[in-house]
Amino acid sequence: MEIILKEDIIGLGYKNDIVNVKNGYGRNYLIPTGKGVIASPAAKKQLAENLKQQAAKIAAKKAEAEKRAAQFDGVEVVIPAKVSATGVTYGSVNAAIVAEELAKKGLEVDRKIITMRDIKKVGTYEATIHFFKEVEVKLPVTVVAENQPEPKAEEVAETPAEAPVAEAEETPVAEEEAPAAE
């Protein structure tokens, strides 16, 4: 089913694009919510006429998007996250967290125009910020460990010496409780 989009939908297309979608997605979501209309021949003619009339506005929006994208040249986001001993984060780093970190740097971006996979490990990743149809910025995102786990070599050395004493003390208690439970 061909649909003319009435607004930008990340992952599908931009405003005034003609896209092919599954019938159910078009009929049950895009058309009822006003995010798209059926691309009939009459609607396509009207779209072409509107695009001719709005060419100057579209060029101005694109220039504004390019100006905003230029602000992100050389910007890198470093996000401290709590991690386990294996380097896996507790929770995940997503677009909302990246938008918050950018806001701390004075760069306001709506989290909805940032696309990335949820990050669950320490490392360097890439997020894409979609400003306009052909204006996108690749933003490096580095996740670092907030809490560096300390080596447990000392604890391992002490544990075998203490373990037999602890087991000897616990064993009689366990035997006393077992008959009472039966």
TrEMBL record:
Q: Does the keyword Ribosomal protein apply?
A: yes
Q: Does the keyword DNA-binding apply?
A: no
- Family annotation (Pfam families): Ribosomal_L9_C (PF03948), Ribosomal_L9_N (PF01281)
Q: Which InterPro entries match?
A: Ribosomal_bL9, Ribosomal_bL9/RNase_H1_N, Ribosomal_bL9_bac/chp, Ribosomal_bL9_C, Ribosomal_bL9_C_sf, Ribosomal_bL9_N, Ribosomal_bL9_N_sf
Which purpose does this protein serve, as stated in its record?
Binds to the 23S rRNA.
Q: Which family does it belong to?
A: Belongs to the bacterial ribosomal protein bL9 family.
This protein is called what? Large ribosomal subunit protein bL9
Query: Which species is listed as the source?
Result: Prevotella corporis
> Its encoding gene is what?
rplI
